[in-house]
Design goal:
Number of helices: 6
Low-confidence stretches: none
Largest sheet: 2 strands, antiparallel
Mean pLDDT: 85
Number of domains: 1
Strand content: under 5%
Helix content: 55-70%
Radius of gyration: 19 Å
CATH topology: Bromodomain-like
Distance between the termini: 25 Å
Order of helices and strands: HHHHHEEH
Strand order of the largest sheet: 1-2
Amino acid sequence: MKIIIKNWVKVIFILSLIAILSALIAEYVFNLIPCKMCLYQRHPYYFIIGILIIFFFLKKTNSIWLYILVELAILYGIFYSAWHVGIEQNLLKGPSGCSATLNNVGSIENLKEQISNQDIVNCSDISWIIFGLSAATINLLLLILLLFFNTLFIYKALYDKEKNI
């Protein structure tokens, strides 16, 4: 546990990089087109990588503000990942255009508009499964793990600061 906390910036950077690279490889090498929710789930990783690079160049990698920003990004990611898992399990409804449903057609023009506004990939369709888990589920588990350790790090940093006062 101490080694993870000591190298937390590196760990979170590497895990975020692996998550993004995995998504991009799945999309561009294996032609797995992401749905709208999959794209939203990438945002926190892009943000985390960017903010870690900025804080690295500012030589502020031990700043509590860095970990708070990372925490907020993780919470954003958990929200979209949990929502996506809920959509995949038919427990939650997705954002407009994310689910392949047609509402009260009424006219040919209305039907054309609804069809053209549908995403290419339905958010409730699971593109791939590994070890019985969808990509959204794996992402949710990773983000929960990151949240746990990042919260511990924030707590430790605040406790150490309070102890030194």
